[in-house]
């Protein structure tokens, strides 16, 4: 089952309400996306910590072979 970019953004926005979020559908199939999340809460965290926080915000949508979201290329950072 595919996901819309707006659904991905809404899930991330719940956890990071003030973030700048950019979602790109990489393959046009609703299963392969790239996301850039820029949020002040990432300041002082390493990249793994930042990305784990975003994956947690997806509430299991990427879990296992039956996940709704197959692939997400993730870029995270604090604002410059």
UniProtKB/TrEMBL annotation:
Among SUPFAM superfamilies, the record links this protein to:
BolA-like
Give the InterPro entries listed for this entry.
Answer: BolA, BolA-like_sf, BolA/IbaG_stress_morph_reg
* Domain of life, per lineage: Bacteria
UniProt-listed Pfam families: BolA (PF01722)
* Family statement: Belongs to the BolA/IbaG family.
The family database entries (PANTHER family) matched by this protein are listed as: BOLA TRANSCRIPTION REGULATOR (PTHR46229), BOLA-LIKE PROTEIN 1 (PTHR46229:SF2)
Query: Know the name of this protein?
Result: BolA family transcriptional regulator
Please tell me the species this chain comes from.
Aliiroseovarius zhejiangensis
């Amino acid at each position: 089952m595919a996901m819309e970019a707006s659904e991905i953004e809404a899930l991330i926005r719940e956890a990071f309400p003030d973030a700048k979020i950019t979602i790109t559908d990489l393959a046009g199939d609703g299963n392969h996306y790239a996301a850039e999340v820029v949020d002040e809460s990432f300041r002082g965290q390493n990249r793994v910590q930042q990305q784990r926080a975003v994956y947690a915000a997806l509430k299991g949508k990427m879990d296992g072979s039956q996940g709704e979201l197959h692939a997400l290329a993730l870029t995270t950072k604090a604002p410059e």
